TrEMBL record:
Protein name: DUF373 family protein
Record keyword Transmembrane helix present: yes
Highest taxon in the source lineage: Archaea
InterPro entries linked: DUF373 (IPR007254)
Species whose genome carries this gene: Haloferax mucosum ATCC BAA-1512
Amino acid sequence: MLLVLCVDLDDDLGRKTGLDTPVVGRQNVEDAAVALATADPEDSDVNVLFQGIQVHDQLLEDEDEEVEVAAVTGVEGSDVKANREIGAEIDTVLASISTGESVHAIVITDGAQDESVLPVIRSRVPIDGVRRVVVRQAQNLESMYYTMKQVLADPETRGTILVPLGILLLIYPFVTIASLFDVPGAVVLGLISALLGLYTLFRGLGLESAVDEAANRARNVLYTGRVTIITYVAAAALLVVGGVRGYDLFQNVSGSVNGDPAPGLILAALVHGAVEWFAAAGITSSLGQVTDEYLHDRFKWRYLNAPFYVSAIAIVLYALSGFFLPAGIDGVQTFELTGLAVALTVGTLLGVLSTLTFAVVEAHFPTSAENDGEQPA
């Protein structure tokens, strides 16, 4: 049995005529086509219904098997819901024309959008052919519109195509504006080329997922009120100050020695000037992390080792760098061999004693996170 199936994805037939769908049978489909043409003569689904009737009549003359025609509709606004509704109506049609023969379908549509439902139809009945009906004056216009609509609706395709196109279209107005401020056009072209290059690398390396993940993480940190966001900002500021202080001390040391300073002396000057500030940054960030772990019931005593470890390392580096720097330079605290030995001993004992102390406390006063065996986030 051949079933001529007229597809109306957005339910123009039901909405404009008030008819119940599906519509089965030649006469019923013809009445529905007349009703839709009366309600809206410009609707392309009118052509679909009359085309279905014509195909039905031709097949009835040329074929020896039984032929039936039916019109099925979806819903307006959602392709997913429309496809599901058409699937349900096809099931109704197949049940109403129950026959001992196998059913094959000839699908009649008015454009590419309606043809998106073909997999739904094919899952229920084999398709022998598809006939697209469009007005001659508008041939391929709807397909072009639908394709452009699908491209613009896809976020990935939209970003890949429209962003470079938009940057290219901005070249002329940017150059025009730059000429008003006596900025060479080559500079503008270079900046736009750099933007396109960065965008191409960004897309090519797939960095959008990493950026989205970082943005989500930063947003969650802000919304959950985590202390670390404050301490990390303060630590970053301390690192900047430490870098400046290290460079200033390096300049002082370079000016106090004859010739170019040795690489070891340069390293000692940078470390000696920056280590105090770097240690303060490390202690600040670790205290913020410990506070957040405590507030989220993930605190363990061993986490308190971090500030002591940072302090111990800072003491060792400060004394070691001061041992190699010459005396009499502003900002330099020199250390003799005895002072260096004391500093190394103090740093080592600070790290060891903090580890032993918190291990003992953890054994006698375990926290809830230690009892549950959780790990820090």
